[in-house]
Structures are given as structure tokens and as C-alpha cells.
Amino acid sequence: MKNFTIAIHGGAGTILKSSMTIEKENAYNSALQEALETGFQILAKGRSALDAVEAAVISLENCPLFNAGKGAVFTHDGKHEMDASIMEGKHLNAGAVAGLKNVKNPVGLARLVMEKSEHVLMSGAGAEDFARSLNVPFESDDYFFVQQRYDQLMEMHQSGKTALDHTPEKKFGTVGAVALDQNGNLAAATSTGGMTNKKYGRVGDTPVIGAGTYANNKTCAVSCTGHGEFFLRAVVAYDVSCLMEYKGMSLEQACTHVVKEKLVALGGEGGLIAIDAAGNFSLTFNSEGMYRGMRNSAGKNVISIYT
Questions:
Q1: Is residue 174 among the annotated active site residues?
Q2: CATH code of residue 235
Q3: What is the span of the domain harbouring residue 201?
């Protein structure tokens, strides 16, 4: 059996240790392990990295603890606008969606954009029409209502600001997964609910191929989480791949340079998960922590939140 690896994240930045209860920490760890196990079992059966990252991200989208899918934060208007993307590294095929309302699993729709259309990125009502044409599951507003998220919105309405997730603490609740399968193919997927109290149809890095998500069998697969404006400006996911392809950096060198030097110089906070074509992995962040995990065929299994 050839080696295979999967890594996941549930957002960079964390609930501060001082206010993290054992119950909360156990809940996060359990949800991360469940998503990791879901993707790992797909790889263990010889299925594709693409299947694994989609399934792992769907698991996280279905969990109200994370800012994606069911746990998506509220916009200024009290709605949910979700973004997602997916990419495979063999042929560089990709699909993405932005500004979705009521689609249960945005990452699943992103894959359908890749496989069932001639496009890469669809947005808003058009993307929802495309979803309906393929009988993609929708859910009511009640399904997406999480009291904690609503309380965050009310707090942001009072301040007039936007927030990435928890306030006053910072947690960038995007979710993602990267994987290497037994055939040597890489894939990455990312999904988010965006910013609490966001206006004007704001879109971050998550659905932008090369910024929040990228996969190339020659180099690596990357899924990002953080302050999307900075990740867009730095084209973070593609930059990691470029440093490996054109400068000969290792995965760890490239991730460290981008996240801890280039992003920091811009003022950007967050992190990423990445896997290279040899199965090496990196879970790199410049925030206090990152909800993260990885598992490989060699028996290594890691779930962690803090530094």
C-alpha cells in the first residue's frame, strides 16, 4: 500500500485558553477527529484525495462549532452568505462558489461546478439556480440558526464593525482539508461563512483559487484560514506552491516563509494546512492557535488547538 495523508483545519485563531472550558475543548477535538477519520477512511479504501477532502469538509460544515455550513456566521442583514472551493492537483481542475444562501453543503456544490459545468466560480442566485438544477440539498434559515452566532451579530451591530468569528477574541472559523491519496494525487478544499456583520456581498479568499485553496501534484495542496483580505493580496495558497516549484523550497520552508514572514509583514493573521507530493505535511499559523489535525498511513494522528 502506498502512503497517504490527510490534514484538516477548523480555523486559525482560537478561543483564548483563559475562557476555553474542558467541555468546549473536548467538543472541538471530537468534531475535528470525526472529520479527520471520515477523510482518512476514504483514502484507506483507495479512493481519491478529492473524495476525501470533500467528505472531511462536509463533516465540518455539518458541525455548528465551525464558521461554515450549519455554523456559518450572520451577515449584517441577518442572513448567511457562504463560500467554498475545491481543487485537484493532477489536471488542476477547480470549482468554487461565493455568496450562497441556504445550500446545505457549499463544498459539494463547488465540486459540482468543477465537474458539471464549464466554469470555475459561480456566485449568488446563479449558483443557487445551478444547485437546484442538480437537486442539491437546501436547508431553511432555521437550520443555519446558531444562537452564539446571532449573539455575535447583535454585538457587532452595536459596534458597527465586522468580526471574523468570536468576539472580543479572534477566531477565523473557515474550515478546510488537504489530502494525498494512494495514487499520488493531491486535493484541497475550503469552506466558510465569512465575516459576522459583513455587508455589500463581501467575499474573502476562500472561493478564490490560488488565494485560499490550491492543489498541484508537482508541489502541494493548500487550504488557508485567516483574514481573507490579506490572503487575497498575498495569493497565499499559490505562493506556497510557487516557492516550491520555482525556488526549490521544501513544503515547510515555503509555508513558514509565507505565513510567518510575508503575511506578518502585511499585517495578516491566520494560517494554513498543506501536504506535498511525498506526503509531508505542514500545519502553520501566526495566530495564537489553529484548530487542526492530520493523519497518515504511517500511523501518525494529531489533533491540536493551541501552539
A1: yes
A2: 3.60.20.30
A3: 5-306
Confidence (pTM) = 0.94
194 and 226 Cβ atoms separated by less than 8 Å: no
> Tens digits of per-residue pLDDT, 149-185?
878 888 877 766 655 543 345 556 799 999 999 999 9
Q: Count Cβ atoms within 10 A of the Cβ of residue 156 and give its class: 0-12 exposed, 13-18 middle, 19 or more buried.
A: buried
d(CA 239, CA 301): 27
| DSSP H helix total and E strand total for the chain | 10, 12
The count of domains in the chain is 1
Q: Is 22 helix (H, G, I), strand (E, B) or coil?
A: helix
- Which class for 74: exposed (0-12), middle (13-18), buried (19 or more C-beta within 10 A)? buried
Active-site hit among 38, 174, 192, 219: 174
Is the peptide bond prior to 207 cis by the omega test (within 30 degrees of 0)?
Answer: no
Q: For residue range 260-307, what is the model confidence (pLDDT) as tens digits?
A: 999 999 999 999 999 999 999 999 999 989 999 999 999 999 999 998
DSSP state of 18: G
